[in-house]
Amino acid sequence: MIGKFFVLSFRNLRHRNVRSWLTVLGIIVGVALIVSLVSLGKGLENGISQQLKMFGGDLLTIMPGEETDPLLGILGGDTIRDRDVDLLNDVSGVNLVVPFDMVYYQVEFKGEINATMIHGSPIEESKELYTENRGLGMEAGKWPERETTNELVLGYKIAKSQFRDEVFVGDEIRIKGKDFKVVGILKEIGSAEDDNAVYISLYNLRRITGRQGTVKMVLVRIAPGYDQNKVAEDIKFILRQERGSADFTVLTSEKTQAIVGDILGAIQLSVLFIAIFAILVGAIGVMNTMYTSVLERRREIGIMKAIGATDTDIMDIFIIESGVIGLIGGTIGIAIGLSLAKIAEIAAVKAGVKFLEVYISVQFILGVLAFAFLLGIISGVLPARQAARLKPAEALRYE
Amino acid sequence: MYDIVCGMKLGDKPTFKGLHKRKTYCFCTKDCQSEFKKNPKKFIEGTPVVELKNVYKEFDLGRVKVPVLHDLSLKIWEGDFVALMGVSGSGKSTAMNIMGLLDDVTKGKVYIDGKETSKMGSNELAGLRNEKIGFVFQQFNLLGALNCRDNISLPFFFKKKSSKLEQNGNLDKLINNVGLKDRVEHKPLEMSGGEQQRAAIARALVDEPELVIADEPTGNLDSKTGKMIMDEFRKLNDKGKTLIVVTHDSNIANAAKRVLHLKDGRLISNHNNHKK
Ligand SMILES: Nc1ncnc2c1ncn2[C@@H]1O[C@H](COP(=O)(O)OP(=O)(O)O)[C@@H](O)[C@H]1O
Ligand SMILES: [Mg+2]
Ligand SMILES: [Zn+2]
C-alpha cells in the first residue's frame, strides 16, 4: 500500500517544475553543512588530540596573558621575562625548562626569499625536548653543537619543497644578512606550521630580533612522580609573586586539550547554528511548496477522492511526497557535504596538515537520511491535512 | 405521494394510477405506469440502486445562499440507462455529485442500495464510491503524472483489500475493448480527447461498479467522437450496467432508455424513449 504511494509520489515529483525544486535548496545546504562539519570535526578532534599526545602528559606550557584568555596574551605582545624563566628551574618537580621565542621573518636560500616562522630556543634543552618528549628524530643531520654557532635546523617541508631546490644538510641559509649552516632536518611532524618552520638557538634568534630578556612561551617538563596540577599551582604562586600580578597562564596538557576542545566546539556550534537555520528555511520552503502543490492539484485530489481515495490516502500521498523531497534534498546534501569535506581534506594535506581527515560512519549517513525524510514529512503534515480535508465536489470544481 | 417507479414527487391528484394486490399506486406518466405493469414486484419489493428523497441543496457563499436543488426525489433502478437533461445551471452536476456521493445534501435523504448515506463518515463514503460507483467527467480527469494503464487501474490503488479483478487480466481485456491497446504507455497529454475519455470510461469500469455516473461525457468531444462514446455506453447498458448520463444534447439523450428533465433544480418530466 505505502509502496504504491511511493511510486505515485515519484511520478508526481517527476512532473514538478524547476521552481518548486529550488525550495529544497535550504535542506540541501543545511544537510551539506552538517555532514561536512561532523565528518571534518571528528577527524579534526582525533588529529588534535593526537598532536597533543605527542607533547606528553608531563609538559606544562606557560604563556603571557590572563588565564581566561591566553590567546589574547600572545597576540597582545605580552611576554615572559628571563627572570621568570630562571625562577622556574628552582620549582621542585620541574626537570626541564625550555623558553621559546619566535618571529615571522624572511629566509633566503640561493637568492630565493621565503617568509616563515623562526623558532628560537636553547639548543641543549630543545634537543632533549624534541627527541625525548616528542620522539622526533632527525630526517638528516643533527642538532647544532653550541648555542652561539651560526647553525640551524629546518622543518621537513621547508627543506623539501618550500624553495625551488631542495635544501640539504650542509647548505647555507641567509637570515637578516647572516649566513647559517643547515646542520639538521627534522622528521615530518604533520602540521604545516611546524614542518615549515626554522629552528635556531634562542641566542641566535635574539640576534635577529634584537629582543633581549623576554620570551613568548615556556615549556616545562615535570619530573616523574610529581602531580602536574600541583606543580602548576606552585609555578603560578611563584610567578605571581615575582610579577606582581596574574598576567600569565600555566596550561597543563589537560587544560590545553580542553581549550582546543572549546574552540572546536565554538566553531562547530556556530556552523551548526547556520545549518539549523538553513534547514529551518528549507523546511519552510518544503512546506510552502507543498501548500502550493495542494492548491495546484485540488482537482487531482478531487479525482482521486471520486475514485475512492480516503482522506488518509490523500494525506499519505502528500506526506510521502514531501518526505521524498526531504530525502532527495538530504541525499544531495550528503553528497555535497562529503565532497566539501574531502576537498578540505585534500587542501589540508597539500598544506601539510595531515590530521584533517574525513571521518564518517554509515550510521551517521543513514541517520541524516532518516532525519531529512522526517523533516520532509513534518513539513508536509499541514499541507497534507489541508489536502485531505478538501470535499471531493469542491475539489473537482477547480480548473 | 411518490411515483413508485421513477421516485418523482406527484401532485395531489395524480392522473396515472395502477392497482396491484388491492393497493393503488400512482405514476407521473403513462411510461411509469406501463413500466410498473410489466413487473410490479420489482418496484414494490426491490431496492433502487440510487434513491433521492426530498433532496434540497444550497451553496453557502457566506453572504448569500444559492439554492440549487428543490425537493428532488428520484429512483434509479438496476439496468437503467437514464439521461439527465436540462439547461446549463439547472443543477444537473449538483444532482450527479449528490448521487455519486461527492457532495452532501442540505436537506433530504440519499440512499445507495437502500442504505441511507447521511450518517456515513468520509471513509465509508470513499469506500462506497470506490466499490459501487464509477465516474466519467466532461474534462476526462485523468491524472497527468500517470500513463494510460496506471490511470485506468487507479481504482485498485485505493482498495483496502486486493481485488480479484485486478489479477485476472480484466484490465487488459478492458483496455482492448476500449481500443487503447497501443496507448497504454502514453500520458494523458499525449492522447486525443476521445482516447482520454475512453481511458476514463475504462477507469470507471475497471472494478465493475454497480453504477456509472457520467457528467457530460461528450461535452468536450466533437460530435463524431461523442457518438462513439455514447455507443460505448449503449453497449455497457446492453450488458446490464446501470448508467446515468448528463447531457444537454437531445441526440445523445436518445441513446438512453429514460430521460429526466431538470429545470431550476426541479424535476419537471420523466419519459421513456420508445423508439427502439
Ligand atoms: N460549489 C458551488 N458553489 C456555489 N455555487 C455553485 C456550486 N456548484 C454549483 N453552483 C451553482 O449551482 C447552480 C447549478 O450548477 P450545476 O449543478 O453545475 O448546473 P449544471 O450542471 O446543470 O450546469 C449554478 O448556478 C452554479 O453556479
Ligand atoms: Mg454541469
Ligand atoms: Zn414516473
Describe this protein with a few key phrases:
heterodimer, A: 399 residues, alpha+beta, 2 domains, 6-stranded mixed barrel, two-stranded antiparallel ribbon, 15 helices, 12 strands, 60% helix, B: 276 residues, alpha/beta, Rossmann fold, 6-stranded mixed sheet, 4-stranded antiparallel sheet, 11 helices, 32% helix, 26% strand, globular, binds adenosine-5'-diphosphate, binds magnesium ion, binds zinc ion
What helical percentage do the residues of chain A reach?
Answer: 55-70%
CATH fold-level assignment of the largest domain in chain B: Rossmann fold
Mean pLDDT rating of chain A: 85
Mean pLDDT of chain B: 91
CATH superfamily of the largest domain in chain B: P-loop containing nucleotide triphosphate hydrolases
What is the beta-strand fraction of chain A? 15-25%
Backbone structural class of chain B: alpha/beta
Q: How many beta-strand runs of chain B? A: 12
Question: In one word, what is the shape of chain A?
Answer: elongated
Q: Could you say how many structural domains of chain B there are in total?
A: 2
Strand order, sheet with most strands of chain A:
3-4-9-6-8-7
- Tell me the major beta sheet of chain B: 6 strands, mixed
Count the DSSP helices of chain B: 11
Q: Please tell me what the overall shape of chain B is.
A: globular
Bound molecules: adenosine-5'-diphosphate, magnesium ion, zinc ion
Question: How would you classify the helix and strand content of chain A by structural class?
Answer: alpha+beta
Number of helices of chain A: 15
Give the CATH level 1 class of the largest domain in chain B. Alpha Beta
Structure description:
- The complex is a heterodimer of chains A (399) and B (276).
- Chain A has helices at 2-14, 18-22, 25-55, 70-75, 82-90, 123-133, 156-162, 192-195, 202-209, 228-243, 253-296, 298-307, 311-350, 362-389, 392-397, and strands at 59-64, 80-81, 94-109, 112-120, 138-141, 151-154, 172-175, 178-186, 198-200, 214-215, 217-222, 248-252.
- By secondary structure, chain A is α+β, with helices and mostly antiparallel strands.
- Chain A folds into 2 domains: 2-52 and 258-397, no CATH class; 58-251, no CATH class.
- In chain A, the strands form 2 sheets. In chain A, strands 3-4-9-6-8-7 form a 6-stranded mixed β-barrel, surrounded by 4 helices. A two-stranded antiparallel ribbon of chain A has the order 2-10.
- In chain A, helix 3 packs across helix 13 and helix 11 (253-296) runs antiparallel to helix 13 (311-350).
- The longest helix of chain A is centred in the last third of the chain and has 44 residues, at 253-296.
- Chain B has 2 domains: 1-46, no CATH class; 79-104 and 122-272, Rossmann fold.
- Chain B has 11 helices and 12 strands.
- Chain B has helices at 30-38, 40-45, 92-99, 122-132, 148-152, 154-157, 164-167, 170-177, 193-205, 223-238, 250-253, and strands spanning 16-20, 23-27, 50-60, 65-76, 81-85, 107-112, 115-116, 133-136, 211-215, 242-246, 258-263, 266-272.
- In chain B, the strands form 3 sheets. Chain B has a 6-stranded mixed β-sheet with strand order 8-9-10-5-11-12, sandwiched between helices. In chain B, strands 4-3-6-7 form a 4-stranded antiparallel β-sheet, covered by helices on one side. Chain B has a two-stranded antiparallel ribbon with strand order 1-2.
- In chain B, strand 6 and strand 7 form a beta hairpin.
- The longest helix of chain B is centred in the C-terminal third of the chain and has 16 residues, at 223-238.
- The radius of gyration of chain B is 19 Å and the shape is globular.
- The mean pLDDT of chain B is 91.
- Classes of the chains: A alpha+beta (399), B alpha/beta (276).
- Chain A binds chain B through residues 4, 8, 11-12, 14-15, 299-300, 302-313, 391-394, 396, and chain B through 97, 100, 102-104, 122-123, 126-127, 129-131, 135, 137, 141-146, 150, 154-155, 157-159, 203.
- Bound molecules: adenosine-5'-diphosphate, magnesium ion and zinc ion.
- The site of adenosine-5'-diphosphate has 12 residues of chain B, from strand 4 and helix 3.
